[in-house]
Amino acid sequence: MSLREVCQNMAEEIVAWRRDFHRHPELSFAESRTASVVAGILRQLGLSVQEGVNGHGVVGELVGAAPGKRVALRADMDALAIVEETGLPFASAVPGVMHACGHDGHMAALLGAAKVLAGMRERLRGSVRFIFQPAEEIPPGGAKGMIEAGALDGVDVMFGLHLWSEYPVGTFYTALGPLMAAADMFTITISGKGGHGGQPHNTVDSLLIASHLVMAAQHIVSRQLDPLQSGVITFGQLQAGSAFNVIADKAELKGTVRSFAPEVRDLLQRRLEQTAASMAELYGARIAVDYVRGYPAVINHEQEARAALAEAEAVFGKEQVGIMQPNMVGEDFSYYLQKVPGAFCFVGAGIPEGPVYPHHHPRFVIDERALPLATEWLCRMALRYVG
Ligand code: NI
Fold first, then answer.
1. For the segment 312-326, what is each residue's pLDDT rounded down to a tens digit?
2. CA-based, 20 to 30 A from 363: which of 9, 24, 94, 164?
3. CA of 335 to the centre of ligand 1 (A)
4. Residue 280 sits in the same domain as residue 301
5. Is 343 exposed, middle or buried (0-12, 13-18, 19+ CB in 10 A)?
6. Distance between alpha carbon 146 and the CA centroid of its chain, in Å?
7. What is the model's pTM?
């Protein structure tokens, strides 16, 4: 039987796992039931299993008959605080919690790969590590702690995937370098001195200073960043004042900074802080910048990304596989790729006849035909190194 047939024959079981996870979603850092289901299945397959890795993480190890390389494959486990509105028969049984990003499918596809590869153990040269990681959705995330707990020790190469509803089922995309941006968040609080709208000379107008700051920050990207590099500074919120004739004593700005190169990330943060400090000096206000770094950018390693594309062509067909533009969504797979070579990839899971809802939407759904395809691709990635 071909690998394709083996995976397709398992489709029903993979879908059943996915629906079970879907029905019982758990929030980031609270994936206890999910972890015990995953660990139970991996144990049944005869893998050595480590539970409680960085909270609810589970690591399964499949050791082949002969020594060789070690490949790691990762799935994330957490759901979101969303009230599900799909109306599916296996919709969430937990009020206010929903697998609205496809992580239920990631786990099911990876368990499928574990089962297929466990059945080939005698033919494997090397080992495959199955990393089930908690808390991808909420920074600081689960990946960093998994690495600190040793999940990557001895790993030569690593791959992960995200099902993606905005790409139709049967397609596969990745990038040879930057794939997903670093996504940081900031809050800037400007404390001035309130007063009468007709007597500005007795005040420090925090609203006007906020306006200058927003404008000045645009110079950072347009005049201080190399035009061939990419970066974004977006102010999404500005709150100040309470009446038309009162000068606001306080203003608060919130926004996000996105970048790919680490030096661009450093530059944008530093210049934003410097701009705020100089505004404070210039206008006599107090300005506090609270800059919170989210996940670093996901940067694929070129050689491994090419390997991922080559295996994907065998699974999805040459016409259905391609290079994608970087995506501005954050993902903590970035931490793994800072330590070991590898690639993160997008597996199309959109229902061709629609409707397509984006990830994190209450009606988010996937085409489950993507699951055995994802399993087959994961198996191929492992076999490429230990087959
Ligand atoms: Ni996700």
1. 999 999 999 999 999
2. 9
3. 15
4. no
5. buried
6. 15
7. 0.89
- Separation of 21 CA from ligand 1 center, angstroms? 15
Question: From ligand 1's centre to the CA of 103, what distance in Å?
Answer: 6
**Residues with a known catalytic role:** 78, 136
The CATH number of residue 174's host domain is 3.40.630.10
- CA 361 to ligand 1 center in whole angstroms: 12
- Count CA atoms closer than 13 A to 21's CA, side-chain side: 34
If asked whether residues 108 and 142 sit together in one domain, one would say yes
Full domain range(s) for residue 192: 182-292
- Are residue 42 and residue 70 in the same domain, yes or no? yes
pLDDT digits (tens, 9 = 90+) for 349-365: 999 998 899 999 999 99
Task: Over range 112-130, report the average pLDDT.
Answer: 97
**Three-state DSSP class for residue 87:** coil
Given a contact cutoff of 8 angstroms between Cβ atoms, the answer to whether 145 and 332 are in contact is: no
- What is the distance in A from the centroid of ligand 1 to the CA of 102? 6
Report the CATH number that the domain containing residue 213 is assigned in CATH: 3.30.70.360
- Over residues 283-305, mean pLDDT: 97
The pLDDT, as a whole number, for residue 354 is 83
